[in-house]
Amino acid sequence: MAGVGDGPVTQATTPAQSAEPLAGWRWWGGLAVGGAVGLFGMAGLVRDAAKTMPAVWLRWLVGLLLAHDLVLAPLVHLVGRRLRERVPAAWRWPLQVGLVVSGVLVLASVPVLYGVGRATQPGNTSVLPGDYPRALAGVVIVVWLGVLLWGVRRARNPGR
Amino acid sequence: MSLSFTSKARNERATAVLGIAVGVLFGVCLLTGLLSHLIQHPPVWFAWPSRPAWLYRWSQGLHVFSGIALLPVLLAKLWSVYPNLYRWPPVRNLAHAIERAAIVPLLGGTLLLLATGLMNIAYWYGWGFDFIATHYWTAWIVAGAIIVHVAAKLPLVRRCLTSRRAAASDAASLERRRFLATTAVAAGVLLLVTVGEAFTPLRRLAVLAPRRQGVGPQGLPVNKDAVSAGVAGKLADPGWRLAVGGRIERPAALSLADLQARMAGSMGHAAHLPIACVEGWSQEVHWRGVRLRALLDEVGASHDAAVRVQSLQRGGSSTVVLNPSHVRDPDTLLALELNGGPLHPDHGYPVRLIAPNNPGVMQTKWLESVTVL
User: Fold this and answer.
1) Which residues of A fall within a CB distance of 8 Å from B182?
2) Is the pLDDT of residue B274 over 70?
3) Which residues of A touch B150 (CB under 8 A)?
4) Which of A50, B67, B76, B368 is most buried (CB neighbours < 10 A)?
């Protein structure tokens, strides 16, 4: 996503951001307790390094963060803006639901769609037993049929 | 290209509601995950009871499906605060720097937990590290980061949910409600097409779940088949005996015929019990076999003893220790039959353990020995 973050950030609305400074016993106490719990986890991760492979772990953690911040979030942002600018009001919400539901279904289904799990036990037919591409297509079609009916109804009855 | 954030749905109140939802779902995930860990690796102060028989099934189902529901809710939460990533100046003071730094393990860790969890239940081990250890320690790291985050944001959440100022305009309020409803619908649809691998009333809808209730030998899914476990060649051995030993008066070596004779007599028992896999799928089926406690009576063992059960399988989950609560339970069986027929090799032929309220990984298959501790 080239260009993200280059331009000025204008804020029509206010995302959650505390104006007050972080202070008081709740904040510092929470920091102490949370810090201790987090360090306990870090210590365990490092002590178990033969299993957890911290360098590989870190690559995954940072990779997933970047995939969200630099790919998924800007993509959703651009699609959302297009939706607000180009789509008639009655169709905006139905299209939003259709896109979000489809996107979430695809994301959550990547492991079963990819299907490498079957190779771990070639003789075990109960592992990933479905025809997942077809099942996903079926569910998404049902979702979009609903979106279509809902959108038509909203467009015909603007008061709703 | 300028990155301008114009959606009216993006406001403090939406973020507060989604933050609470993420916190609740993650909390359920964390507690049920820790419980499952304690059950499988019990410290001396912890003894998991055999009753109620459905508890582990529900607990682990909640773990996996609250994690699945977390995916859309977390993404919506992140969408609502995404402009903050580009706020200037990035940090205002030390406390603010700490608070923002804690978001790296908070968010990266949560995404890692979700990704590895979703991949693991589909048997996709494409990361290199060990799943259990990494998932476990990452959960502690994220839990710590969440405590820090809550400490920083709680005053803001409280203000957003109590003050009327947050619901500034009707248009923004409407957009916010639609956005939250869209998120709820996404989570609902995702659950609807997966949860049936555990929740029997919805089993026909589980078209995107990695397991299906009723699909597998004898109508039950198999976690690990006999060939993959390396036991397939040992199951037809006519010299097979179940060794019963340890702190007992009369050690025994029982053939399959010996066990069948006991099942037909007063030691026999049938029970409806679920297999509840740590991966979230579960199914209740009908078992028949020999009561473990009756067999222990026969060989002269104490009822208050723990029992170690060993499989013909080597490594992995081949050994399990049952605490006295499970040993004494009248439904704990050395099972020979499943759904009215002899156990399929993949379900643990010639004999397997089945106990109420234990994870599937502790329901040892292909038994070799029973040792009273």
Assistant:
1) 93, 96-97, 100-101
2) yes
3) 30, 34
4) B76
Model confidence over A4-34: pLDDT tens digits? 333 333 344 445 455 567 888 899 999 999 9
Residue A41 touches chain B, beta carbons under 8 Å:
yes
Q: What is the per-residue pLDDT across B128-141, written as a single tens digit (0 to 9) for each?
A: 999 999 999 999 99
**Residue A126 is nearest to which of B95, B115, B215, comparing CB atoms?**
B215
Cβ neighbours of B277 in A, within 8 Å: none
Asked if B339 and B306 touch (Cβ cutoff 8 Å), the reply is no
Is A41 in Cβ contact with B138 (below 8 Å)? yes
Average pLDDT over residues B295-300: 96
- Same domain as B269, residue B187: no
Mean per-residue pLDDT over chain B, rounded:
94
Task: Looking at the complex, report in whole angstroms how far the Cα of residue A149 sits from the nearest Cα belonging to chain B.
Answer: 16
- The CATH number given to whatever domain includes residue B222 is 3.90.420.10
A-chain CB neighbours of B144 within 8 Å are 34-41
Residue boundaries of the structural domains of chain A: 28-86, 88-160
Closest CA in chain B for residue A112: B122
Report the residue from A5, A14, A138 with minimal CB separation from B12: A14
Q: A101 and B185: CB-CB below 8 Å?
A: yes
Asked if B36 and B160 sit in the same domain, the reply is: yes
What whole-number distance in Å separates Cα of residue A113 and Cα of residue B257?
A: 45
